[in-house]
User: Fold these one by one.
Assistant:
Number 1:
Amino acid sequence: MRYEQIPAPAYLSNYVRYIWTLESGAMSHQFRIIADGSPGLIFQNGPAGLFEQNKKEMPNVLLYGQSTTHAEISMGKSTMIGICFFPGALKSIFDLNANELTDTCMDLDLFATRHGYYLREQLLNLESVSDQINMLCTYLFAQIHKNDRKPDGHTDYVLSMMIRSKGMVSLKVLQKELNVSERSLERKFKQHVGISPKMFSRICSFQASLNQLKNNEYEKLSDIAYENGYSDQSHFIRTFKEFAGFSPYQYQKQPHNVADNFPELVK
């Protein structure tokens, strides 16, 4: 099992957080997707049927939205390429309302084919992973220029403040600062991010606590809970289970953390 994280090219740096590859040499691996606040794209380089989510077969090229919960995936012997977008990128790149993909995905090849781009076929005809990554990046760049949609300023500002504060910033303060109503901000978030500002804020707090747990930056769990805005340790554990699918104690027992939010499961 080999995982690599690759920086996004400069021309996509406003839309893509990073690119990753995952190469499996074994017949089957089980992983868990953890809520991380980002939509993304996955290309599974191999025959159909090697990639499943919650025991449902996934297409070779898929676009997924925000996750508000966890999911289990299995991967056969193949290579995956993933593109992790910034939270509000789906609307800007694909002109999709992001809430249409929340907790689900779509076959990106069907979307691309409608626009005259035979994505899966062209990707599978390329021999090297680097060529496939370059092609995916070229496709995304073409989509951005075709749609010519600029990110929403209010949404991007609120997102940046939430991420910077690790979910601790007051939404009411931000609404007052921007002179927008709660309903207006919720509508913008559902269009551009796919979830409500409150849900995104909760995911930011969860991610901050996850990083603290992973890096052993605490003496006891209650330290993590109080430092990330949870009312008590029980509240923290409940939220962790909601977004990760297991408790903080169980997470620590997973020894093969392949990627930040893509841990291999121990059965």
Note: The longest strand covers residues 16-23.
Number 2:
Amino acid sequence: MTEPISAAFLDNPFARKLTAFVALSPSDLSVVSDLYRRRRPYPVGVDMIHQGQSDHSAYLLASGWACSYKLLRGGARQIVDFQIPGDFIGLRSVLFRTSDHNVEPVTPVHASVVTQTELLNAFSLTPRLATAVLWAASRDEAMVVEHLVDLGRRSASERMAHFILELNMRLRLVGLADKAGFACPLSQYLLADALGLSAVHVNRVLRELREEGLMTFQKGQVVIDNYDGLVALSSFDRDYLDHDGPLLA
């Protein structure tokens, strides 16, 4: 018989995220809790991970938002994704030994350091944890595919609508949003760097979506006024996020 999961574990956003993919036992979740134990603050604007850095640690994001990005030779920046509470930052770089991107907090964050040795030891103690992390990493890869489609084929308004819906789903998974909206600390400049638009264009698109009664984004709060309308506009298909309950019970 499966033991009941402590509510304290589910208050951990990383545990909440993983249990959406794989049912973890209390002993599995105890290992997750151990990985969370060295939490410390990181300030805005100071990279936690540098492109080309080797032998660094990964991070479990407990609170706050960060972004992963690449810098081009001319100084332009492309934001690859935003990290939210519950995300594993730098996992691929730890396993590959060298980071291929930068990670910078966009709000003050608290994160726990996880070394390669600690991660591999945790995986050996609980294979289900390794499976859950693999599942989460596969979902993140699926999101990257959608982001490529955003940049290559979706219009600016479709791009924004799809981004907002994806972010809404990710935040709902860790209890930080509902279907009506969520708190969002991202500036129009950050949105521009992520969506391949100018800040002026982002402002115009947000105004159009507001005037069409679909959503508003003001003062750090996204309000989804017409969820189905946003889905129709962006052809949003949530299947790639795989949030319909754990496949391994």
Note: The first strand starts at residue 39 and ends at 42.
